[in-house]
Amino acid sequence: MQRTPGPLRSYVESWAPEAVTDVDDLHAAPVAALSALLDEPAPVATTGDPLPPLWHWLYFLRWPAQRDLGADGHPRHGHFLPPVPDRQRMVAGGRCTVDEPLRLGERAERVSSLGAVTTKRGRSGEILFVTQRHELRQRGRTCLLEEQDIVYRSGRTSTPHTRAALDPSATARPDGHWHLPLHPDPPLLFRFSALTANAHRIHYDTPYARDVEGYPGLVVHGPLLALLMLELVRRDAPSRQVLSLSYRLRSPVFAGEHLLARGTPRDDRADLSVATHRDPAHATAEVTFTER
């Protein structure tokens, strides 16, 4: 007889991982690679240049041994992975405050620690929210503070994630002042997975995504949606320096769909979103700027 898992809170009551420190030299190659993925004619930054907001996700990567991956491609073990049975993981959102941009080609230090751990009951059952904090430093100074919210569940939901029929020809309405389209295909998702050391099979294994996870197709990475929203700022407001940002990943987008990042500037801030014809806000973000 299969054992019914207990309340998620019971698995993390004594879970208190200590802070860990990582270093990275922030070499230029990952920025050049992501620039190519986004069809930029040249790298958006080279050695000595400021790193665009959220592009630090290309660094401080962890590559576990192949034997340490689970059936879904996620690591079986990890310092900040909660001890939940049959753990399923998705990024929910996050926040970031930028004191000064990181500089490409200079050694950086990242101190990671555990933040809030809370349980909630969603439509498909109990879920666990874990906040992970990161402090990134260069030359002995704190450059940015980041919090990432990760949602976990124990076991799989018994219902499909979405029953929407995918329409590869439909497009979103171009609302707002800033627009950036993207038509993600399997090679793009595969390349982004490699750039971010993300082995979750929903992003590159169609039979797995459809038959095991219950999606209608390959899932576009949540972090890619967040980066795409911030690309609006980099491209359409290049003279504005980001002071803070927050983003929320609300519903999945799938390979083959036409998505559109949209933005509206409002004095010292901007409201951003990612839309398809199915949903005007698969992801949302708000950015605030430093004073001119």
UniProtKB/TrEMBL annotation:
InterPro entries: HotDog_dom_sf (IPR029069), Mitochondrial_HTD2 (IPR052741). SUPFAM superfamilies: Thioesterase/thiol ester dehydrase-isomerase (SSF54637). This is 3-methylfumaryl-CoA hydratase.
